[in-house]
Amino acid sequence: MNTPHSLPRIAVLATGGTIAGQAGDASNTTGYKAGVVGVDKLLDAVPALASVARIHAEQIASIDSKDMSSALWTKLATRINELLAQDDIDGVVVTHGTDTLEETAYLLHLTVKSAKPVVLTAAMRPSTALSADGPLNLLNAVTVAASASAQAQGVMVAFNNQIHSARDVTKTSTYAVDAFRSPETGVLGFVQDGRVEFQRGVTRAHTTSSEFAIGDQWPMVEIVASYAGASRVGIDAMVQAGVKGIVVAGTGNGSMHASLTDALADAVKQGVAVVRSSRVGSGHVMRNGAASDEALGTVSAGTLNPYKARVLLMLALAANAPDMQRVFDKY
């Protein structure tokens, strides 16, 4: 039986989001304000945490995650690396808003330099709502972070009793409590009633095997979408503004409107890195050889959605990675 002193010590870093949200009406949450409940109150709402881990809590930010910034990414990743380097910290949990959780999770997946567990969690309902989902998600996230089986799995997301890899997970609903899915690969495992079980492992490079490190330099990378009647106006404006990379949310298998193809070919000639992803939501964007990528100098994002492809492209550009396609094939 675990005694309080034998329990793992888990750092809980709060950044705001719906999990820390507050509304005036428990049954109508449309007007709630995100990020107003502090980390201490979040923890007080889950007394069962005391039987799972010893908690070290920090308030990193108090924002709606739609307003996540690269500066806050730097702050968060730096602090996580500092904490995990300490012998008395066994893992980290980050409470986050759902809107950009998958981007933050993937950024940390590539820049955390420890095999210790890092688990993000969130909520679809504010803390004051009827049947708020935040407390159970937080308990499960700490349970995963405290589990020996979570070592070396990279950054994970614990949500609705499921455990997802940061690389694969994406938000798929605007309202449901099971909003997060891993459409191509499925979940890593589950957590329920204190039991953590992994049903598969992570094979792509991450954390301690990643070549990328967090820094203050964030090259400008933007996203454009392909759709019926798309024009080149946005791409030309981005190139003129000094963008270093462009990710295309293409149709189908990363295909692009002819006007976008012409504009992106010109962008590549001016030294802009261009990555093809898809707006579809799942599936692999195949490298199209002489018909597209080789002729244009573009890169396939593989199974990464446009938002995660942007994260990887920013890190690769900051590191002056010599072969972008290798990077997207490896990570």
From TrEMBL:
One of its GO terms (biological process) is asparagine metabolic process. Belongs to the asparaginase 1 family. Its EC number is 3.5.1.1. The active site is at T18, T18 (o-isoaspartyl threonine intermediate), T98. SMART domains: Asparaginase. NCBIfam families: asnASE_II. Residues 221-321 form the Asparaginase/glutaminase C-terminal domain. It comes from the Bacteria. Pfam families: Asparaginase (PF00710), Asparaginase_C (PF17763). Gene3D superfamilies: 3.40.50.40, L-asparaginase, N-terminal domain (3.40.50.1170). InterPro entries: AsnASE_II, Asp/glu_Ase-like_sf, Asparaginase/glutaminase-like, Asparaginase/glutaminase_AS1, Asparaginase/glutaminase_AS2, Asparaginase_C, L-asparaginase_C, L-asparaginase_N. The keyword rRNA-binding does not apply. Residues 9-201 form the L-asparaginase N-terminal domain. This is L-asparaginase. Keywords: Hydrolase. GO terms for molecular function: asparaginase activity. Substrate binds at S65, T98, D99. It comes from Candidatus Burkholderia verschuerenii.
